[in-house]
Every structure is written in structure tokens, then in C-alpha cells.
Amino acid sequence: MTDRPARPEQPPGLRARGERAQPERGSGSRSGPRSPRLLPRWLDPYMAALAGTVGLAALFPASGSSARVAEVACDLAVALLFFLYGARLSTRETLAGLRHLRLHGLVLAATFGLFPLIGLATALLTPVPLTGPLQTGVLFLCLVPSTVQSSVALTGAAGGNVPAAICAGTYSSLAGLVLTPLLAASLLGSHTALSADGLLRIGLQLLAPFLLGQLLRPWIGGLLSRHKRVLTPVDRGSILLVVYTAFSAAVSQGIWHLATPLALLGLLAVLLALLAVALAATGLGARLLGLDGPSTVAAVLCGSQKSLASGLPMATVLFGTGAGLMVLPLMLYHQLQLVVGTVLAGRWSRAPATAPAGRIPAALTGPDAPPAPG
Description:
Elements: H1 45-59, H2 65-88, H3 91-96, H4 101-125, H5 132-141, H6 149-157, H7 162-187, H8 196-226, H9 228-252, H10 261-289, H11 293-303, H12 308-319, H13 328-348, H14 362-365
Helix pairs in contact: 1-9, 2-8, 2-9, 2-12, 4-5, 4-7, 4-10, 4-11, 5-13, 6-7, 6-11, 6-13, 7-11, 9-12, 10-11, 10-13
């Protein structure tokens, strides 16, 4: 039997609905012996690389002239990321997805309405007070758009509406280019460097490369689609560079003493509660809007996720060298949403493929439901 190629976007340890388990190489497979794994199966290699980058910045932070070089390289990497986002986005598919208006409205309302309100509430309801940068980071996390890649992969694995998930994540990302900086200016105030010059920088570093990518898509879109695997290290390498630059600045400023073990435990508790509230609220909203089962799965997964790929570059533009610990909540939440989303998608994939209109899958209301807040 020939092995089927693995889906590149699929989270580790999760098989799509109806997909058979693949035989282990080296035990009757024709593919030859499998090379030994360097990391345990439960650990996402990308998150391991992010953790390693933070450790590298803590031990060998960029300073002086090297810090200036890192900042320039970081700015170029952010511009490249958004150029690639624009070049990959299919305008035709984006417009075709407008028919799922209730689903997209729910995702946008959760991403840019519910999340900011919860973020503001955490300052009053958190049992363990968070240090200034961590609390600001939690609020910034709540302003970041939804993700596309992991939402789509998890929705497909759970048997949900994949085209709707693609469009929902895309619309959220597009709205985030405008709404995230505006919300940050309103809610974070003095923590951001937003002014007329700051808005111009956002336009030049984020919007301009994105629009340029859209304009060049007819000529380079096919080339990018054929070389996705080659471009993946470019995407992830750019994010790692952003992380290294931000945490190097934090270490150089002596900010790490604020991240006490008690503060980190409090942060983890806040993020878990935030994810639980988002899952429960989007599930309830889908039921009230009368979405069918597959669309509900897409709404819940898209409405509860936050984009690391968009959030980290935005943080460097909004906070500059002060990003540091402010991006730590986003990095931790990203890992939590992958773990919880993988578990939920695996359980939902064993439920009926469709649910009656106006009802949500039993996994959202039965014993497999996400924990209720409080």
C-alpha cells in the first residue's frame, strides 16, 4: 500500500475525518526506514523553534550596531510577509465567500468586539495581577485578527465548512489591517507609538506591501502556489526574526524581572479562561444565528483563534522596541488554541457529518463541550 502525502497545514497528531492511519515506515512500508524524530510527537516543531529563539535572545541579545541591523532586517521581513499575504490571496475566492454573511459577521464580532471587551475585563477580574507589559500583551492579543491556516486545517479535520473557514479567516485578516491599529490606539493609548507618523509607517510597512502583492498576483500568484513548501521557511523565518528582535530589546532593557513565576501562572490561567469564553460564546452565537453543523464548526474555530503570523509583525510596528513581553501572551495563546482545537476537532470528527439546521454539534453541548468560564 502506498503512503498518502500528509497535509502540510494539518496540526501535528491529527488526522482528517475518514482518513486511515498510515503504516509506519520501516515496518512493511516501501518507503524505507524512517529517520529518528528529534522532537516528541506532542511538541509542535515551530513552537519549539519559537521557544528556542526566545532562549537565544535571552542568552545573546542583539545590542548596539547589531540591534540596529536586526531592526532593519525585521522591518524588511515584516514587509515581505505582508507582500506574500497579498500575493497569495485570491480575490475571486474571497468575493465568492460573501454568501456566508451570518458566519462572517459572527467571526468578526467575536474577533474585534467580544475579545476586546474580555481583554478590558481581565484587568479587573484577574485573581493574580499581571505585570504591566503582560497585561498590555493580553489586551493586544484580544485585538489581533483570526488566523487562516490553523483554522482551515482544524475545520477540515473536524468535518466543518472549509470554504467558509478560508473566507472567514481571510476577512478577519483584511479587517485587522485597519481595525487592529485603530483599536490599539484607542485601548492601549500611551503604550503604542501611534501618531500621524506611526499611521504612515503602518501604511508603508503593512498595507502597501499587501496591496502590491495583490496587484502582482496575476503574474506571480501561480508561481507562489507551486512553491509553497519553499516559501514556508521564509514565512516562519521572518516570524522568528521578529521574535528575536523583540525579545532582544526586552532583555537589553532589563525587563525580564517582571515575568515572575506567579505572573506567568496568572497569565496562563487568564489565557485558558479567555479561550474557554471565546469557544462558548461563538458556539452560542452560531446556535442563535441558526447556522448548520459544518458552518458552526467553522465559526467556533475561526472566532476563537488569533493569528501569530499577523500579530507579531503588527506588535513590532505598534510597540517598536517595547514589544518584548507584550507578545508573550500571543505566543502562549497560539499554542493553547492549537492544542485545544486539535482535541476538539478530533472529537467532532467522530460526530455525524452534519447537524440539523439551527443546532450545533453535540460535542459543543454534551460532555465534550469546552469548559464554561468561571
